[in-house]
Amino acid sequence: MVKRKYILYIEDEVELAEIVKEELESECYKVVTSETYTDAIKKLSNQKFDLIIADLKLKKGSGDMVIELIKQDSKNFNYSTPVFVASGMITSDILKRVGGHIDHAFVKPFEIEELLDKVKKFIS
User: Fold this and answer.
1) Domain-located, residue 120
2) What is the C-alpha separation between 118 and 94, in angstroms, rounded?
3) Which of 34, 45, 63, 74 is the Cys-Cys partner for 40 at CB 3.0 to 4.6 Å?
4) pLDDT per residue over 100-123, tens digit each?
5) Residue 105 and residue 27: Cα distance in Å, rounded?
């Protein structure tokens, strides 16, 4: 039996989160969603994920703050987890701050097939 891979998807656009979650789960991934910085941090402190996909601009907090927090402590059990950014707000300043901590960036709107391909390459 193949162990399901767990993905944390941090996205405050509920409709988009549901679409992406359904697509990823149709490929046999288990997707946990989070809409806020606080909720994401709570989930990251309680579970090891195989991949994190984060929007940068959230209604409460930001995805780059989440990335910086987990990547600053090598004892964090999600420290080595690959991170994708999916955002319409990718700027050179943000890339300078988190670029060394992310494995891929998607600019919204992105093609779901491109996301699925990258996910498969990183965690399958």
Assistant:
1) no
2) 21
3) 34
4) 889 999 989 999 999 999 999 999
5) 21
